[in-house]
Amino acid sequence: MTSHSRSARAEIARLQTFAPVLSALGNQLAARRPFEGRTVGVVAHLTPPTAALLLELQLGGGRFVVAGAAEATTDQEIVRLLRDEGLTVHTPGARAEAQRALLDEGPEILADAGGDLVGTLLRWRPEAAGRVRGAAVLGRSAARRLGGLNPPFPVVDLTAGTLKVAVENRTGVGLGVWQAVQALTGLHLAGRRVAVLGYGPVGQGVAAAARAMGAQVDVVELDPVRRLLAHYDGYGVPTLGAAVEAAGVLVTCTGVDGALPAEALLRARDGLVLANAGHGGHEVDVPGVAAVAARVDEVAEGVTRYQFEGGPMVTVLGGGHPINIVMNAGSPEPLLLLFALLGLTLADLAENERPAGVVGAPRALEAAAAALALHALGADRG
pTM of the prediction? Predict the structure, then answer.
């Protein structure tokens, strides 16, 4: 075992000690062995919580093949640890190639962060779709990516349920984003003006956490219904241009590539700090910002400052990638609860025949995951 693996194992042991829901999941899977004789393909951010999940899933039998969802969220210590444990791991130097290599391993069950893997299968490996029993997908952008693909197997969208939205997105991501920002910058939010771009579940959590920390919060939202909800939740709802001119910190929470174009930043308040909480690393047009910047400074790891010619200076955190994941920030409990739901869903797909098509998280599985978490956290003892 390498010293890197020991460090990663220590982090996983911490998760198992203080957020024991995955250990409870592992005990169930060890008794059921739902994956025996099957190959499970997993695309995920390769972080300590993901490794903790995979180690528990292995107790359910089967063979696990893994691909990293993005290079920026791939912890090489975790890659080494998983390989030490006998998992096949493809790292995402070129994301599509890593996913195709995973699909060449012949998985029958898929776990997919963001819907990319299912899309790659149906577009580039359609002949392999017939052997897939089912898939579980995570991420708010998954449904959009799967739209019109008509998968010939069941696809369970865990985002289209209660636990992902109400617990992991609002509670877990909302807090984790600001912990990551503070770890990188030392910023104290009280009294600062914060802009949140997007008012879906993630944006709602990010905005609420910022307000709880004393920030003045504006929400930028194109959808009139969500914009009205933000207004009645007590936030300012300016245009993007007005928000960029006033904010000291802006967080994108849309899941949409190019949501914050470089030209929108030319009139930014000097010193604006930018972070992303959405899926992928393209919500902030970082290449566009770099192309028009007169000067670029790497202030610290994960902190890059851009000076526009005759204009403002802006700072991008984490290269524009999901900052809470890059920094492994926030309480693990909401995420691990979602992972428990993912594990139960994969076991269900392995054990039962389900109709083809995209469906939301079954209520019975959400209830089982919630009960598992309540018991593991001792909440049922008061």
Answer: 0.78
